[in-house]
Amino acid sequence: MSITKELIDRINYLSRKSRTPEGLTEEEKAEQARVRREYVDAIKARVKDTLDRVEIVDADQIASTAAPQKADGQRGAGASVTGQGHRCGCPTCNAKSGERLH
Questions:
Q1: Residues 64, 102 share a domain
Q2: 3-state SS, residue 60
Q3: What are the pLDDT digits (tens) for 14-61?
Q4: Into how many domains does the chain fold?
Q5: Does the first or last residue of the chain, that is N or C, have fewer Cβ atoms within 10 Å of its Cβ?
Q6: pTM given for the model
Q7: Do both 44 and 61 map to the same domain?
Q8: Domain identity same for 42 and 83
Q9: C-alpha span between 71 and 73 (Å, rounded)
Q10: Is 38 in contact with 7 (CB distance < 8 Å)?
């Protein structure tokens, strides 16, 4: 099930026609309900697919794996002493002091 231009055009046509003085026939009302349901189901499927691909990572896990300690006790390149970011110049690293965004 996918959202095609034809599906959207049909939804829009039936919506416009429903606001005219002649309105929709019973068959068109049934079709309108069907195409709207098809559209909503396609959107739900896309959202579900997107959420199925999302990987949630613990922020503390990122901090501990992003800059592992070297054998001599020094942190890896790009790590901050406080562990509050890698100071790359990205908006997250340039946040006001005290804000921890990553």
A1: yes
A2: helix
A3: 999 999 999 999 999 999 999 999 999 999 999 999 999 988 887 776
A4: 2
A5: N
A6: 0.55
A7: no
A8: no
A9: 5
A10: yes
